[in-house]
């Protein structure tokens, strides 16, 4: 991915061993705001979680590893039925290239389920105009190419936080 910069031996020596991140785990708990991250790459998810923590962003990060899990989480079904343990997210960061059901499939599902109204920011390594156009055609709220440098990732996290938590007004179903 574009975050391949972090996969150097320097990163591995800091970590000491490959880091395993459990699925749908709450990482940073602040202010009851929930960010659902649909990301199959453990390192990319861990780097995002670290950037969120480093920036002091007031949000709880929940992670799923594929599109099927994202659909289950968003619909509150299966293992994600308990909304106390798996609260409704205010924002979704969606990778496109995931196993089982890809990000485009999640966007198609969302179009068919109008009650799922959370903003979806596609967070992909792909800068292909075809992918960008397709994501927007399927209802993505925004499209961000994964930054390759840690400073850019932190800048992106701050910008997302400022926009989606300070300015954007979120739809709340009756």
Strand order of the largest sheet: 2-1-3-4-5
The quaternary state of the protein chains shown equals single chain
Distance between the termini: 39 Å
Figure out the total of helices: 6
Strand content: 5-15%
Helix content: 25-40%
Count the beta strands: 5
- Given as residue ranges, the uncertain stretches (5+ residues, pLDDT < 50) are 1-31
Give the class from helix and strand content and strand pairing.
alpha/beta
H/E element sequence: HEHEHEHEHEH
* Main sheet characteristics: 5 strands, parallel
| Global geometry | globular
Quick summary of this structure?
With 174 residues, this protein is of the alpha/beta class. The protein has helices at residues 9-15, 42-55, 67-75, 103-112, 129-137, 150-167; strands at 34-38, 60-64, 91-94, 120-124, 142-145. Strands 2-1-3-4-5 form a five-stranded parallel beta sheet.
Question: Which helices and strands occur, and which strands form pairs?
Answer:
Elements (H helix, E strand, L loop, with lengths): L8 H7 L18 E5 L3 H14 L4 E5 L2 H9 L15 E4 L8 H10 L7 E5 L4 H9 L4 E4 L4 H18 L7
Parallel strand pairs: 1-2, 1-3, 3-4, 4-5
Helix pairs in contact: 2-6, 3-4
């Amino acid at each position: 991915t574009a975050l391949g910069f972090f996969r150097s031996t320097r990163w591995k020596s800091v970590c000491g061993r490959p880091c395993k991140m459990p699925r749908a785990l709450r990482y940073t708990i602040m202010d009851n705001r929930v960010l659902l991250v649909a990301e199959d790459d453990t390192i990319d998810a861990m780097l995002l979680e670290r950037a969120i923590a480093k920036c002091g962003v007031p949000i709880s990060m929940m992670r799923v590893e594929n599109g099927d899990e994202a659909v289950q989480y968003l619909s509150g079904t299966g293992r994600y039925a308990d909304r106390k343990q798996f609260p409704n997210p205010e924002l979704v960061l969606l990778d496109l290239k995931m196993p089982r059901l890809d990000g485009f499939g999640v966007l198609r599902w969302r179009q068919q389920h109008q009650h799922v109204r959370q903003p979806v920011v596609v967070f992909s390594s792909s800068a292909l105009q075809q992918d960008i156009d397709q994501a927007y055609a399927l209802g993505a709220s925004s499209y961000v190419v994964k930054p390759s440098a840690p400073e850019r990732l932190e800048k992106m996290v701050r910008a997302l936080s400022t926009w989606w938590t300070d300015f954007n007004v979120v739809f709340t179903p009756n």
